Amino acid sequence: MTFKALHHVAIICSDYSKSKAFYTQILGLEILQEVYREERDSYKLDLAINKHYCIELFSFPNVPERPSYPEACGLRHLAFEVADIERTAIELKEKGIQVEAIKIDPYTGKKFTFFADPDNLPLELYEQ
Fold first, then answer.
1. In this predicted model, what pLDDT tens digit does every residue of 21-40 receive, in sequence order?
2. Are 122 and 114 in contact (CB under 8 A)?
3. What is the distance between the terminal CA atoms of the chain, rounded to a whole angstrom?
4. Taking a C-beta distance cutoff of 8 angstroms, is the pair 44, 91 a contact?
């Protein structure tokens, strides 16, 4: 078996309008396609970074909350690669997003920090 790449990550949100605005207007991801599936009362929003399809944002009625803290089994976080973590953290803060202090990964020497989406999904900035 040989994988070529990670294709996408699927995220289920509790408030579609709020999450759509967060991922597109605050984070600046590009909308590739938006579909409303009436039979499921569900939206599916396909998002891209630099024309690369990466996130499917879903809405479903009555979704349960995701346990985050203390950390729960399952997907821990999504990480976005950035060129300048300090500048990106400032931009997020200017848009009202709380960002943790920037840390240095003791194994790679790279800078990283965390912030959260509207459903408190942990998101990471990782300077490459």
1. 999 999 999 999 999 999 99
2. yes
3. 28
4. no
Pairing assessment for the beta strands 78-82 and 122-127 based on DSSP bridges: parallel
- How many domains does the chain fold into? 2
- pLDDT at 32 (0 to 100): 97
CATH at 95: 3.10.180.10
Please report, as a single letter, which amino acid is at residue 127. Answer: E
The Cβ of residue 121 has, within 10 Å, a number of other Cβ atoms equal to 17
What pLDDT digit, counting tens, does each position of 36-58 carry? Answer: 999 999 999 999 999 999 999 99
Query: Residue 106's domain spans which residues?
Result: 76-128
What are the φ and ψ backbone dihedral angles of 66, each rounded to 5 degrees? -95, 125
